[in-house]
Amino acid sequence: MKATTLTMRVDPVLKEQAEALCAEMGLTLSTAYTMFLKAMVRTRSIPFPITADPFYSKKNQAYLAESIAELEAGGGEEHELIDV
């Protein structure tokens, strides 16, 4: 099978982490990406769930804006952070 070159931009730290993980599995990054593309074509979808981060929901953003306004108006109370 003839191959083609794919060029993409990615954060260098992310690339290093992905290469290290692939090496642990006995794969190259190129092989892993090929596996991803084949799964995507086979299933006609992204082969993993993609969900929105609830932090960025309209409801939470409204809550944060309200909280910031309350703090800026002198409201709220100071307390120590609790390690969970």
Automatic annotation (TrEMBL):
GO biological process: DNA-templated transcription; regulation of DNA-templated transcription
Pfam families hit by this protein: RelB
Keywords carried by this UniProt record: Toxin-antitoxin system
Signal peptide limits: none
Top-rank taxon: Bacteria
TM ranges: none
InterPro entries named among the record's database cross-references: Arc_rbn_hlx_hlx (IPR013321), RelB/DinJ (IPR007337)
Presence of the UniProt keyword S-adenosyl-L-methionine in the record: no
Family stated for the protein in its record: Belongs to the RelB/DinJ antitoxin family.
Protein name: Type II toxin-antitoxin system RelB/DinJ family antitoxin
UniProt source species: Selenomonas caprae
